[in-house]
Each structure stands twice: as structure tokens, then as C-alpha cells.
Amino acid sequence: MEIAIMIEAQNGLNWTRWKNLAAAVEELGFHGLFRSDHFTNATPPDKESLELWVSLTWLASHTKRIEFGPLVTPVSFRHPALTARMAAAVDDLGGGRLTLGLGAGWQEREHLLFGFDLLDMVSRYYRFEEGLEVITRLFNTDGPVTFDGKFYQLREATLLPHPARPGGPRILIGGNGEKRTMSLVAKYASEWNAGFITPAEFTRLSTRLDGMLEEVGREPKAVKRSMMAGLLFSRTQIKLDEKLSDRNHTAEDLRKRGVIVGVGEEVYEQLKHFEEAGLQRIMLQWLDLDDMKGLEALAKSLL
User: Fold this and answer.
1) Cα 130 to Cα 150: distance, rounded to the nearest angstrom
2) How many CB atoms lie within 10 A of CB 82?
3) Buried/exposed 68-80: b ≥16 CB within 10 Å, e otherwise
4) How confident is the model at residue 247, as a pLDDT?
5) Which of 44, 164, 220, 289 is most buried by its number of CB atoms within 10 A?
6) Long-range Cβ contact pairs of 104-111 (< 8 A, separation 24 or more)
7) Tell me, what DSSP letter sits at residue 222?
8) Rg of the chain over all Cα atoms, to the nearest angstrom
9) Rounded distance, CA 104 to CA 74, Å?
10) To the nearest 10°, the Cα dihedral for 247, 250, 254, 260?
11) Are 174 and 195 in contact, with CB atoms under 8 Å apart?
12) What does the domain layout of the chain look like in residue ranges?
């Protein structure tokens, strides 16, 4: 199972932190570095947050090994044709290491603050599907693309230069919804990303996805299985107990919510259960953007 790091960029990501994180993730042997695409958090105070595609362009040209991408970028922020152009260019720049995580958008406050239209839930998903259709057509069509949707319209648009990787960057769709989300995964995605669930629930949803893929004529192995997981890790039990006390939860309570909790080998054993359940990649949520020593200790425990 691939072990990657995921950060919440809206919690203070600036250039110094981004450069330090990229160097650490690359040097310590983690498989990848993924980040959220948020302008700010759902509640104040507002903190620094580097623009997604600017940060990924830098990452593509200043790392050599790690995979990377947004987890996830909402179509509510940018026209899908623009996202497709930027994603293809960044993937080419990085030598085919981008995973393009896409979403419908959900956080009301940032949409209100910056003037983006979030839409009601039903319209949001219709717009998301149109965005997926636009992006996949541009990635997979050498000639002009015409699309006449409710939210997006293209008139003989051609993506130039064509993506160096056949079919463009891999598309990731995240979410645990069995109706809307997973039906879109079956139709459009190369990777399904679950979030904050137990190994047993992952197995159930993954089996459900297998059936949905077969219904649309795709092989189950065509879609990679990954998960974003919360992580509460410390180098010592005393420090871990302090963190648990701050959250007012027991380790077992958090594990039932899909959070990885432990010291050293405890984390390793929890990840083994997910690997046995069929998980192929895990993105561990690293919330302290300055804790490079902790990241090193995590790498020593797992890698």
C-alpha cells in the first residue's frame, strides 16, 4: 500500500512551509504529497493558503519522485476547461505524476466570501458531472470538442498541446456516497478516494463499487482504491495522551471514526488492516505544517 501525506492548505500554507514539506516528503520516502484546495476554513480565523495550481506547478518542477495533486479541487472555483488545461500542463511538467482530484464543492463560507456560486445540492452535482464530462472529453479527444450543457458550453475546443500521458492525468473522485458520488466514480474516475471510514466499511463500499463498474462495462481493477484518513501520531505515549486529552476523545473513539491513532507500530498495525481490506493508497492527514521532526518519526515507523 502506498503511503502519502495530505495537508489542509487553508491552515496556513505559505511558500516556506510548502518547500519544507515537499523536501521532507520526497526525501523521507513517502509516495506522494496531496493538498486541499480551499480559500479559507469554514470558520474564522482566516489563515494563509497558497493558490492550488501555482503551488502544484512549483512542486512539479522541484521534485522528481513523488506523486501529487489536489484532494480535491472543486469545479465551482474554475471553469473545467481551465482546470483541464492547467492539469495537463502541470502533469507534463512533472513527468506524469499528477493525480487530478475533482469535487463538486461544499464549503459555503469561502464561496460567499470570494463570490463563487455553490448552488443547491442537486444542481451542484449536475454541474459536477458536466465538469467531469468536459474535462474527460478534452483529455481524451485529439480533435475539437463541442459540448452543450446547462452549466458549460464548448464550441470546437481543442486542448493544445495534447497531454503527453495518453488520456491525460488520472482523475480521482472522493467521497463515500453510494448513489451520486460512486456512480460518477464508476463512469469517470481512475481512482476512488474514500474518507474517514473503518476497514470494514471500506470493504463494503469497495465491493459496491466493483458491482457498479461491472454495470457500466469496466473492470474493477480499472479504478484504484485510496482513502484520506485523519492521523493522530506522536513519538511517545505521553505526547499522544496529551493530544487525545486536547480532543476529549479516546483512541478507540477516533479509530471508529476512521482516524489512525497511535505511536510507532500501532499506526503500522492499523494500516495493515486497511491494506488487507484492499486499500491501495492512503493519504494521511498531516495537520501541523511545521512539524518536520514528527514527519520524520512517522516515516521511520512506517517506511
Assistant:
1) 8
2) 11
3) bbbbbbbbbbbeb
4) 85
5) 289
6) 104/74, 104/75, 104/76, 104/128, 105/74, 105/75, 105/76, 105/77, 106/74, 107/38, 107/42, 108/42, 109/40, 109/41, 109/42, 109/43, 110/38, 110/39, 110/40, 110/42, 111/76
7) G
8) 19
9) 5
10) 100
11) yes
12) 2-302
Q: What is the DSSP letter of 40?
A: S
Q: What distance in Å separates the CA atoms of residue 131 and residue 93, rounded to the nearest whole number? A: 23
Q: Output the CATH code of domain 2-302.
A: 3.20.20.30
What residues form DSSP beta bridges with 263?
234
Q: Is the peptide bond before 25 cis (omega within 30 degrees of 0)?
A: no
HSE-CB for 235 with a 13 A CA cutoff: 9
For the chain, which residues score pLDDT lower than 70?
Answer: none
Query: For residues 32-48, b (16+ Cβ closer than 10 Å) or e, as one string?
Result: bbbbbbbbbbeeeeeee
Residue 220, C-beta contacts closer than 8 angstroms, at least 6 positions apart:
209, 210, 213, 214
